[in-house]
Amino acid sequence: MMRGSALDNWLASWARRSRAPRAAARSTPLVFCHVDTPAGKVRYTDTGGARPVLVFVPDGPNVIEHYQALMAQLAASCRVVCFDMPGFGFSVPGRGYSHSLDEGASAVRAVLDHLNINKATLAFSCANGFYALRLAELAPERVCGLLLAQTPSLDAIHAWTDRIVPKALRIPFTGQLLGWLFREKAALGWYRIALPQGTDAKPFINVARTALRCGACFSLAGVVQGLLKEEGRALAIGKVPCTVIWGRQDRSHWSTNPWSLVDIVPHAQVLVLEGCGHFPDLGNRNVYAKLLVERVALWDCRAADALVSTAPQESVSA
User: Fold this and answer.
1) CATH top-level class for 4-316?
2) Whole-structure pTM value
3) Rounded CA gap, 213 and 188, in Å?
4) Cα within 13 Å of Cα(181), Cβ side
5) Distance (Å, whole) CA 199 – CA 201
6) Helix, strand, coil tally for the chain in percent (to 5)
7) Residue 142 in 3-state DSSP?
8) What is the enclosing helix (H) or strand (E) of 122?
9) pLDDT in tens, 22-47
Protein backbone atom coordinates (compact mmCIF):
# COMPACT_ATOMS: atom_id res chain seq x y z
CA MET A 1 0.00 0.00 0.00
CA MET A 2 1.16 3.52 -0.76
CA ARG A 3 2.55 5.31 2.30
CA GLY A 4 0.72 8.37 3.62
CA SER A 5 3.68 10.62 2.79
CA ALA A 6 3.81 9.30 -0.77
CA LEU A 7 0.08 9.93 -1.17
CA ASP A 8 0.53 13.52 0.05
CA ASN A 9 3.29 14.00 -2.52
CA TRP A 10 1.20 12.55 -5.34
CA LEU A 11 -1.88 14.62 -4.51
CA ALA A 12 0.11 17.85 -4.17
CA SER A 13 2.00 17.21 -7.42
CA TRP A 14 -1.22 16.41 -9.25
CA ALA A 15 -2.85 19.60 -7.96
CA ARG A 16 0.05 21.72 -9.20
CA ARG A 17 -0.13 20.14 -12.65
CA SER A 18 -3.91 20.33 -12.99
CA ARG A 19 -4.45 23.81 -11.58
CA ALA A 20 -2.77 27.20 -11.71
CA PRO A 21 -0.90 28.14 -8.50
CA ARG A 22 0.01 31.50 -10.03
CA ALA A 23 -3.63 32.56 -9.78
CA ALA A 24 -3.39 32.63 -5.99
CA ALA A 25 -0.67 35.28 -6.16
CA ARG A 26 -2.26 37.68 -8.66
CA SER A 27 -3.43 40.10 -5.98
CA THR A 28 -0.05 40.45 -4.28
CA PRO A 29 3.17 42.19 -5.36
CA LEU A 30 5.25 39.51 -3.63
CA VAL A 31 7.75 37.68 -5.83
CA PHE A 32 7.79 33.91 -5.31
CA CYS A 33 10.64 31.46 -5.85
CA HIS A 34 11.14 27.76 -5.22
CA VAL A 35 13.99 25.72 -3.80
CA ASP A 36 14.42 21.95 -3.86
CA THR A 37 15.13 20.58 -0.38
CA PRO A 38 15.38 17.03 1.03
CA ALA A 39 11.85 17.61 2.37
CA GLY A 40 10.36 18.70 -0.96
CA LYS A 41 10.03 21.74 -3.22
CA VAL A 42 9.58 24.81 -1.00
CA ARG A 43 7.97 28.06 -2.14
CA TYR A 44 9.33 31.26 -0.56
CA THR A 45 9.50 35.03 -0.86
CA ASP A 46 12.34 37.27 0.34
CA THR A 47 12.41 41.06 0.73
CA GLY A 48 16.22 41.01 0.57
CA GLY A 49 18.60 43.57 2.02
CA ALA A 50 21.31 43.60 4.68
CA ARG A 51 19.08 44.13 7.72
CA PRO A 52 18.58 41.54 10.50
CA VAL A 53 16.89 38.47 9.04
CA LEU A 54 13.41 37.45 10.13
CA VAL A 55 11.87 34.19 8.91
CA PHE A 56 8.14 33.40 8.94
CA VAL A 57 6.35 30.13 8.24
CA PRO A 58 2.54 30.35 7.84
CA ASP A 59 0.41 28.16 10.07
CA GLY A 60 -1.86 26.26 7.68
CA PRO A 61 -4.36 26.80 6.22
CA ASN A 62 -2.70 30.22 6.08
CA VAL A 63 -0.33 30.72 3.16
CA ILE A 64 2.35 33.26 2.30
CA GLU A 65 -0.25 35.60 0.79
CA HIS A 66 -1.78 36.09 4.24
CA TYR A 67 1.52 37.68 5.34
CA GLN A 68 1.72 40.41 2.72
CA ALA A 69 0.71 43.28 5.02
CA LEU A 70 2.86 42.08 7.93
CA MET A 71 5.89 41.68 5.69
CA ALA A 72 5.43 45.21 4.31
CA GLN A 73 5.15 46.56 7.86
CA LEU A 74 8.40 44.89 8.92
CA ALA A 75 10.45 45.38 5.75
CA ALA A 76 11.83 48.75 6.89
CA SER A 77 13.60 47.18 9.86
CA CYS A 78 14.19 43.56 8.78
CA ARG A 79 14.99 41.39 5.83
CA VAL A 80 11.85 39.24 5.82
CA VAL A 81 11.72 35.71 4.42
CA CYS A 82 8.45 33.79 4.37
CA PHE A 83 8.00 30.22 3.11
CA ASP A 84 5.39 27.48 3.16
CA MET A 85 6.51 24.33 4.96
CA PRO A 86 6.38 21.16 2.81
CA GLY A 87 2.79 19.93 2.65
CA PHE A 88 1.30 23.39 3.15
CA GLY A 89 0.54 26.22 0.78
CA PHE A 90 2.32 25.64 -2.51
CA SER A 91 5.30 23.71 -1.09
CA VAL A 92 5.08 20.14 -2.37
CA PRO A 93 6.26 17.57 0.20
CA GLY A 94 8.77 14.91 -0.83
CA ARG A 95 7.60 11.31 -1.18
CA GLY A 96 9.24 10.33 2.11
CA TYR A 97 8.54 13.51 4.09
CA SER A 98 6.77 12.48 7.31
CA HIS A 99 6.74 15.85 9.15
CA SER A 100 9.14 14.66 11.86
CA LEU A 101 11.03 17.24 13.90
CA ASP A 102 14.32 16.39 12.20
CA GLU A 103 12.81 16.57 8.71
CA GLY A 104 11.09 19.88 9.43
CA ALA A 105 14.28 21.37 10.88
CA SER A 106 16.17 20.14 7.82
CA ALA A 107 13.70 21.94 5.54
CA VAL A 108 14.19 25.20 7.45
CA ARG A 109 17.97 24.87 7.35
CA ALA A 110 17.86 24.13 3.60
CA VAL A 111 16.00 27.40 2.94
CA LEU A 112 18.51 29.35 5.07
CA ASP A 113 21.41 27.71 3.22
CA HIS A 114 19.87 28.43 -0.18
CA LEU A 115 19.50 32.11 0.70
CA ASN A 116 23.00 32.31 2.26
CA ILE A 117 21.52 33.27 5.62
CA ASN A 118 23.93 32.44 8.42
CA LYS A 119 21.68 33.45 11.29
CA ALA A 120 18.05 34.51 11.64
CA THR A 121 15.20 35.09 14.05
CA LEU A 122 12.54 32.43 13.49
CA ALA A 123 8.93 33.58 13.96
CA PHE A 124 7.01 30.32 13.70
CA SER A 125 3.64 29.31 15.09
CA CYS A 126 1.70 26.30 16.40
CA ALA A 127 3.16 22.95 15.23
CA ASN A 128 5.77 24.73 13.09
CA GLY A 129 7.26 26.07 16.30
CA PHE A 130 8.58 22.59 17.07
CA TYR A 131 10.62 22.60 13.84
CA ALA A 132 12.13 25.94 14.84
CA LEU A 133 12.92 24.57 18.30
CA ARG A 134 14.54 21.49 16.81
CA LEU A 135 16.73 23.59 14.50
CA ALA A 136 17.76 25.70 17.51
CA GLU A 137 18.70 22.46 19.27
CA LEU A 138 20.66 21.04 16.32
CA ALA A 139 22.27 24.27 15.11
CA PRO A 140 21.96 27.04 17.73
CA GLU A 141 24.55 29.09 15.87
CA ARG A 142 21.97 29.60 13.08
CA VAL A 143 19.23 31.05 15.30
CA CYS A 144 19.29 34.55 16.85
CA GLY A 145 16.07 33.88 18.72
CA LEU A 146 12.66 32.23 18.56
CA LEU A 147 9.36 34.07 18.60
CA LEU A 148 6.76 31.30 18.74
CA ALA A 149 3.01 31.83 18.57
CA GLN A 150 0.54 29.35 20.05
CA THR A 151 3.23 26.67 20.52
CA PRO A 152 2.75 24.62 23.71
CA SER A 153 4.79 21.59 24.82
CA LEU A 154 4.73 18.39 22.76
CA ASP A 155 2.74 16.66 25.50
CA ALA A 156 0.20 19.49 25.35
CA ILE A 157 -0.06 19.29 21.57
CA HIS A 158 -0.65 15.53 21.85
CA ALA A 159 -3.49 16.21 24.31
CA TRP A 160 -4.84 18.88 21.95
CA THR A 161 -4.80 16.35 19.11
CA ASP A 162 -6.83 13.90 21.19
CA ARG A 163 -9.44 16.58 21.82
CA ILE A 164 -9.63 18.32 18.45
CA VAL A 165 -8.41 16.14 15.59
CA PRO A 166 -10.76 13.41 14.27
CA LYS A 167 -9.32 9.93 14.83
CA ALA A 168 -9.50 9.10 11.13
CA LEU A 169 -6.90 11.79 10.35
CA ARG A 170 -4.41 10.08 12.65
CA ILE A 171 -4.42 6.91 10.51
CA PRO A 172 -1.68 6.86 7.83
CA PHE A 173 -2.95 6.92 4.24
CA THR A 174 -6.60 7.05 5.33
CA GLY A 175 -5.96 10.35 7.09
CA GLN A 176 -4.12 11.79 4.09
CA LEU A 177 -6.92 10.81 1.71
CA LEU A 178 -9.71 12.17 3.90
CA GLY A 179 -7.71 15.28 4.68
CA TRP A 180 -7.34 16.00 0.98
CA LEU A 181 -10.98 15.35 0.13
CA PHE A 182 -12.26 17.61 2.91
CA ARG A 183 -9.38 20.10 3.09
CA GLU A 184 -11.45 23.15 2.16
CA LYS A 185 -14.22 22.32 4.63
CA ALA A 186 -11.65 21.63 7.38
CA ALA A 187 -9.68 24.80 6.66
CA LEU A 188 -12.68 27.11 6.68
CA GLY A 189 -14.14 25.46 9.77
CA TRP A 190 -10.81 25.87 11.53
CA TYR A 191 -10.93 29.67 11.22
CA ARG A 192 -14.30 29.72 12.99
CA ILE A 193 -12.87 28.18 16.17
CA ALA A 194 -9.33 29.57 15.98
CA LEU A 195 -10.32 33.24 15.74
CA PRO A 196 -11.86 35.17 18.65
CA GLN A 197 -15.64 34.94 18.79
CA GLY A 198 -17.24 37.70 16.72
CA THR A 199 -14.18 38.18 14.47
CA ASP A 200 -14.85 38.59 10.76
CA ALA A 201 -13.17 35.51 9.29
CA LYS A 202 -13.66 36.55 5.66
CA PRO A 203 -10.20 38.11 5.16
CA PHE A 204 -8.62 34.81 6.27
CA ILE A 205 -11.11 32.58 4.47
CA ASN A 206 -10.98 34.38 1.12
CA VAL A 207 -7.21 34.05 0.79
CA ALA A 208 -7.19 30.43 1.98
CA ARG A 209 -10.09 29.42 -0.29
CA THR A 210 -8.39 30.93 -3.34
CA ALA A 211 -5.14 29.12 -2.53
CA LEU A 212 -6.84 25.77 -1.94
CA ARG A 213 -8.84 26.02 -5.17
CA CYS A 214 -5.60 26.80 -6.99
CA GLY A 215 -4.01 23.60 -5.68
CA ALA A 216 -2.51 24.57 -2.31
CA CYS A 217 -1.74 21.82 0.22
CA PHE A 218 -3.16 21.50 3.71
CA SER A 219 -1.50 18.33 5.04
CA LEU A 220 -3.10 18.36 8.47
CA ALA A 221 -3.09 14.56 8.68
CA GLY A 222 0.60 14.38 7.86
CA VAL A 223 1.74 16.86 10.48
CA VAL A 224 -0.56 15.33 13.12
CA GLN A 225 0.80 11.85 12.44
CA GLY A 226 4.39 13.10 12.38
CA LEU A 227 4.19 14.93 15.71
CA LEU A 228 2.34 12.09 17.45
CA LYS A 229 5.50 10.01 17.00
CA GLU A 230 7.66 12.58 18.79
CA GLU A 231 8.32 12.24 22.51
CA GLY A 232 7.61 15.16 24.82
CA ARG A 233 11.19 15.51 25.98
CA ALA A 234 13.09 18.63 26.98
CA LEU A 235 14.55 20.58 24.06
CA ALA A 236 18.13 21.61 24.72
CA ILE A 237 18.28 24.88 22.78
CA GLY A 238 21.00 26.24 25.05
CA LYS A 239 21.28 30.02 25.10
CA VAL A 240 18.92 30.68 22.18
CA PRO A 241 16.31 33.22 23.43
CA CYS A 242 12.71 32.08 23.17
CA THR A 243 9.48 34.04 23.53
CA VAL A 244 6.03 32.50 23.23
CA ILE A 245 3.07 34.68 22.30
CA TRP A 246 -0.25 33.13 23.29
CA GLY A 247 -3.68 34.25 22.13
CA ARG A 248 -6.10 33.70 25.00
CA GLN A 249 -9.20 33.78 22.75
CA ASP A 250 -8.18 30.72 20.72
CA ARG A 251 -11.20 28.48 21.35
CA SER A 252 -9.38 25.39 20.07
CA HIS A 253 -6.88 25.80 22.92
CA TRP A 254 -9.23 26.72 25.78
CA SER A 255 -7.78 23.98 28.02
CA THR A 256 -4.15 24.22 26.86
CA ASN A 257 -1.71 25.70 29.36
CA PRO A 258 0.02 28.69 27.68
CA TRP A 259 3.08 28.12 29.89
CA SER A 260 3.45 24.41 29.08
CA LEU A 261 6.42 25.04 26.76
CA VAL A 262 8.38 26.18 29.82
CA ASP A 263 8.35 22.52 30.91
CA ILE A 264 10.69 21.66 28.02
CA VAL A 265 12.31 25.08 27.43
CA PRO A 266 12.79 26.46 30.96
CA HIS A 267 14.04 29.90 29.91
CA ALA A 268 11.12 30.57 27.53
CA GLN A 269 9.21 33.80 28.16
CA VAL A 270 5.41 33.69 27.73
CA LEU A 271 3.38 36.73 26.71
CA VAL A 272 -0.40 36.22 26.83
CA LEU A 273 -2.46 38.43 24.50
CA GLU A 274 -5.86 38.57 26.14
CA GLY A 275 -7.87 39.66 23.10
CA CYS A 276 -6.19 37.49 20.50
CA GLY A 277 -6.94 34.11 18.94
CA HIS A 278 -4.80 31.43 17.29
CA PHE A 279 -3.05 33.81 14.87
CA PRO A 280 -1.53 36.67 16.91
CA ASP A 281 0.84 37.44 14.04
CA LEU A 282 -2.05 38.18 11.68
CA GLY A 283 -5.04 38.89 13.90
CA ASN A 284 -3.21 41.46 16.08
CA ARG A 285 -0.62 42.58 13.57
CA ASN A 286 0.39 45.93 15.12
CA VAL A 287 0.92 44.52 18.61
CA TYR A 288 2.76 41.51 17.20
CA ALA A 289 4.98 43.60 14.91
CA LYS A 290 5.98 45.90 17.76
CA LEU A 291 6.96 42.96 19.98
CA LEU A 292 8.80 41.31 17.12
CA VAL A 293 10.84 44.39 16.16
CA GLU A 294 11.86 44.85 19.79
CA ARG A 295 13.08 41.27 20.07
CA VAL A 296 14.82 41.19 16.71
CA ALA A 297 16.80 44.28 17.73
CA LEU A 298 17.66 42.75 21.09
CA TRP A 299 18.58 39.31 19.83
CA ASP A 300 20.52 40.50 16.80
CA CYS A 301 22.79 42.64 19.01
CA ARG A 302 23.17 40.10 21.78
CA ALA A 303 26.73 38.82 22.31
CA ALA A 304 27.20 35.20 21.35
CA ASP A 305 28.15 34.20 24.88
CA ALA A 306 25.39 36.16 26.67
CA LEU A 307 23.65 34.27 29.42
CA VAL A 308 19.93 33.56 29.19
CA SER A 309 18.10 34.23 32.44
CA THR A 310 14.64 33.04 33.37
CA ALA A 311 12.38 35.77 32.04
CA PRO A 312 9.24 37.05 33.79
CA GLN A 313 5.92 35.78 32.47
CA GLU A 314 3.55 38.49 31.31
CA SER A 315 -0.05 39.01 30.30
CA VAL A 316 -0.86 41.90 28.00
CA SER A 317 -3.96 43.27 26.34
CA ALA A 318 -4.34 43.27 22.59
Assistant:
1) alpha beta
2) 0.91
3) 12
4) 8
5) 6
6) 45, 15, 40
7) helix
8) strand 120-123
9) 555 555 678 899 999 999 999 999 99
